[in-house]
Amino acid sequence: MAREIDETWIDEAIDRYRRVEELHADFGKAVAAQTVSVHSPDQSIEVVVTAAGDIVDVKLHGGLRHREPAEFAREMRAVVTSAAEAARWAREKLHGEVFGSFRTLEGH
Fold this sequence. Notes:
Elements: H1 7-33, E1 35-39, E2 45-50, E3 55-60, H2 69-99, H3 102-106
Antiparallel strand pairs: 1-2, 2-3
Helix pairs in contact: 1-2
C-alpha cells in the first residue's frame, strides 16, 4: 500500500530540528559564558563559577593567619557546595530563557 509523503510536514520537521540545534548551540555558549559569584557563610571566601559548573576564580577576603585549618576547610566546602547549587540554578534559568519560546515554534 503506497503512502503519500507530506513534504510540508517533512520540511517543517527539518526546520524544527535545525532550530533545536541552533538553540542547543546558543545554550552551550551561554552556559560557558554565564558566571555566578558565591560567598562562604562568613564572607571570607568567594568562588566564581560558570553555569556549566566550572570554577573560574577563588578569592580570599582577609588573612589566613588566624584561621584554624578545620574552620577554613568547612568554609571552603560550604562555598563550593553553594557554587555547585548556583551553577545548577543558572543553567536552569538559561535553559528557560533559551528554550522557553521553542514550544511556539512547534505550533503548541
